[in-house]
Amino acid sequence: MSAPVQTARSAARGAARGNLRHTTQGSNRKYPMNSLRQGPPPHLLTLADISTDQITSLLQSAAAMKYVSKHFHARSLISRLDRRTVAMIFNKRSTRTRVASEASIEALGGHPMFLGKDDIQLGVNETLEDTAKVVGSMVDGIMARVDGHHEIETLAKNSSVPVINALSDLYHPTQILADLLTLLETYDPLPTPEINFSEGIHTSVLNYYRSALDPVKTLTGKKLALVGDTNNITNELLVTLPRFGMTFSVASPDGYDKVDERVWSKITEAQTDKLITLTNSPAEALKDADVVVTDTWISMGQEAEKVARLEAFKGYQITNQMVQDAGAKQDWKFMHCLPRKQEEVNDEVFYGERSLAFPQAENRKWTIMAVFDALIGQFKMP
């Protein structure tokens, strides 16, 4: 081999080693690439599966990322998804969850791979088990929006990478994380954090929120009333809010008021049933409420039930008069996870000063970003 060729190849090998050192030890990635993948992958299928301390850590991280992104530049965030790919397997259509997820992955330096129902045949020509094993071997995380909750459970059981529930028929954890962040911003608006630039912008802001943001202290004693269907949103609220000391009342029409046994077992396990009221009367649920919530009356896949559901939910539309007559708190707030239909809540409430619906929607991005950062970026539940 001639000297020039040998020298060139030696230089190339040296450059490759240098690039590897930069990739694993550079300023953007302060940990070895593979050191985090120890033990089984962390999953988020429902907030019922994790502690209030872990939920709090996710909320603190979300608040920090929101502040840093809005007041500095996304490059100030720690790019924990650098060179990582997240598969987004969506069997159902989505606006907020999809946009929030793709934007979050990009902001953290990763690559979102969207796989819609026409791109991947989840459980059709290939078993869920096989799909989880194959996709999990090629990407760094999976965000899945499925039909039955058993589908997300099967994906998680067979995946070698973290699986995050983007919605199932039973639970919707990323939505309720956004709801919690919105409630904290509403009832405990924190002063501007002081930045210690020697720590780094992101780290300094995160340390501030870790010391200042206390969901249990802020939410204990507050009452949230949901007037509408007993669906995946209701279920996730049922297994989450009472653990933070909130009282939760649900008003649903007869026949639409049954809580799934799997959900109720989580409530029993957490011993929070005394903070929960189930009723068919909107007025009973709304009395003394700090926050009023409704959701779609016709979920995806229930379109054939539209006529029957609209008839059953007559009298459940949220209006100022209804809430006032029921005796809610004078400064009550309104939330809706969207998309909204006018029969669920009138324009006066939805677009009025009490409505938190649009800040609530934006917070999908920051809370999903926190989940990706922890589970996929750090390969752990905080």
From TrEMBL:
Pathway: Amino-acid biosynthesis; L-arginine biosynthesis; L-arginine from L-ornithine and carbamoyl phosphate: step 1/3. It holds the Pfam family OTCace. Residues 8-18 have a biased composition (Low complexity). SUPFAM superfamilies: Aspartate/ornithine carbamoyltransferase. Residues 1-34 are annotated as: Disordered. This is ornithine carbamoyltransferase. The keyword Nuclease does not apply. One of its GO terms (cellular component) is mitochondrion. Keywords: Amino-acid biosynthesis, Arginine biosynthesis, Transferase. Residues 43-185 form the Aspartate/ornithine carbamoyltransferase carbamoyl-P binding domain. One of its GO terms (biological process) is L-arginine biosynthetic process via ornithine.
